[in-house]
Amino acid sequence: MRSLVLCSLCFLISPAFAQQPTGAKANLKGSLKISLPKGQTNSLANSPIIVTVRNTIEVSSDFFKLGEIADIAGRDEAYKKQLAELEIGRAPLPGYSRSLMPGDIVVKLRAAKLESDRIELIAPPSMRVTRSKSDVATSKLAQIALNSVREALGETPGTTFEAQPPLSSPILPAGTLRYVAGAYRGNPDTGNLTVPINILIDDKPQQTVEITVKVKRKIKVAVVTRIVESREILTSDDVMLAQIELPSGFTQPLTTLKEAIGKRVKRRLFPESPLSLSFLETPPAINNQDKITLDFSIGQLQLTAIVTARQSGAVGDTIRVYCEETKKEIEAVIVDSKTVRLPAAN
Length: 346
Hints:
Layout: H1 2-19, H2 42-45, E1 49-53, E2 57-59, E3 63-65, H3 66-69, E4 70-73, H4 77-84, E5 87-90, E6 97-100, H5 102-111, E7 119-122, E8 127-131, E9 133-135, H6 138-153, E10 159-164, E11 171-173, E12 177-181, E13 193-201, E14 204-224, E15 239-246, E16 264-265, E17 280-281, E18 291-298, E19 301-309, E20 318-323, E21 328-334, E22 339-341
Parallel strand pairs: 1-7, 2-8, 18-22
Antiparallel strand pairs: 1-4, 3-5, 6-8, 9-11, 10-14, 12-13, 13-14, 14-15, 16-17, 18-19, 19-20, 20-21, 21-22
């Protein structure tokens, strides 16, 4: 009887051993299949992996991986590393965010053949992924431009510089910021300057911001004391010296009264307006159609005639005049405001 029972037990047990050979590889649930490293047990390969997506998700690169947005727990280090390196999607622009659904993660797992019954995904119904950014202070950009101009031009008496910060702050990726100021453009004597500021993140160029630097000049110049109409000739009562801030772009200011007195104004000027050389002209000694005296000589005889000027001109200029008696135009040199003389060769 005892022999019969033992034979029956051997018959039942033998097939089970035949179906599980020693040293066989374990097949994991789902689509992922990993050969076990030497010395690893089947229980580790079948251990669960818990993927917990964080409530607050902030990424720094153009694309983000599962390991950047979730905590991955479990004993299977090889599997965890594969999951952490799985690329989930493209990150938004710096400072912006995009939506992410749990289904998006599942789709990526399936596409990478990493989906498995071992994975327990814990995530909110909807998530927001935010791209980190670098904060660039507009006041810092203005100060860098100002320092660059001062270093290039040095200290100029009566001249000051004022940098205008940009209206908005640049939005750039996170990283180590560095600023490089380029050479300014423009003429300090004629108006504003423009300074390009190159912004680098981790020593890689990102953006160039142009800063305007206003040039302010406060010097002693000639100004008018009253309303002066166009074509009026300035007298000593019409001008004075004053310490003022010249308008941006103002050129050729007069710094002495001598430069202004006796000159004719080309445009209307208001009290305290600075005078520029470009606003004035030397008034002609003789105007077109003026009746003037022509001096000429025949041998030892000095003669005069009344002629009409056909041109305007200053003392020393040669102009055409018309002689009524001879009905001819001739050229004569202006001696003063009432007299012209025939050239010596005539």
